[in-house]
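Hey all, quick one. A colleague (J.T.) asked me to put the molybdenum atom job into the tracker so the inputs and the structure tokens live in one place instead of scattered across chat threads. No bug as far as I know, just bookkeeping. Sequence used:
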Amino acid sequence: MGRRRSVVRVRALSRAGWEIPEQSVTPEGVFLRRRELLAALGYGAGALLLGCGPDRPAASARAAATPPPSELPGRYPAPRSRRYRVDRAITPEAIAGRYNNFYEFTTDKERVHELAAGMRTRPWQVEVTGLVHRPRTFDVDELVRRMPLEERVYRFRCVEAWAMVVPWTGFPLRALLEEVQPTRAARYVRFVSIHDPELPGVASQPWYPWPYFEGLRLDEATNELSLLATGIYGHPLPPQHGAPLRLVVPWKYGFKSLKSLVRIELVAERPPTFWNRLQPREYGFYANVDPHTPHPRWSQASERRIDTGARVPTQVYNGYGAFVADLYPRGPSNPA
Ligand SMILES: Nc1nc2c(c(=O)[nH]1)N[C@H]1C(S)=C(S)[C@@H](COP(=O)(O)O)O[C@H]1N2
Ligand SMILES: [Mo]
């Protein structure tokens, strides 16, 4: 199915020598499309769609990535951090950018990019409030100009068992939280996405509790891995990846990495989260990647790379145990 072409990735060759292990030549051109298996699984309208099953490759498709609008020239690409190494090739942009979960637009992963293409992402403010000494509303352009942007190549693992490796550009969430000074009562952080009733997936799926919302424990949010991404592949985030600003928590299943962030609230009690509210048996609050704890409907022991289709073992904490294992004394799936 689909023909294979080996393409030497030009960016890979223009990078410095130390980056070679994660920039190796990749077989690009295995363009996989997947179909959701809803019908087969018997889910009708109104069903809860995330994790309709480990997805499968189907027909081939190809498209070049849409160049994002130029934004604040000079900030991209940001210098790549050497601290976060990944032992796999970076997923080609044309594949990662054509296979998205962003239910505000559609549940069809392959159509998110086209439906989101016209999304209005400026002006854009992020309100940071709640149990903080200095509540503030930030303009995203101000953050991009002022925060210490860096590029981090992270693994990314969806609960549905597909996986990719992408270079995000962003700054540590911790840096933003320090500016608002959480009070001693703050123990959790709540995140809220854009709420626009006219977005096609919002308008057509009124049974979801929009806007999308997520949460982290404060010590998770201030972990060095927790990133607020403003870019990907060396340029500003395109809409389908959660423009203009999204969370990235790479040791957790992808649904924790909330897109198109408009509000952060420091709170005392564990906040409800979108998927946990909908299906608590299937989607926990912590959602740490754990090969040994199956989803009720499928194994999490392995994952499928969306570029090559290869099936590879899932790693505990998605390979980030050195950074986060201390947060969970009883293991990834039994947080204290
Ligand atoms: N607001 C919002 N954020 C979201 C989602 C969503 O539907 N809406 N989907 C989540 C899921 S399930 C995944 S796997 C990732 C996908 O990110 P990507 O499309 O950039 O790869 O976004 C997460 N963030
Ligand atoms: Mo996901």
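Adding what we noticed when we looked at it: Residues 51 and 160 are 5 Å apart (CA to CA). The domain at 54-327 is CATH 3.90.420.10 (Sulfite Oxidase; Chain A, domain 2).
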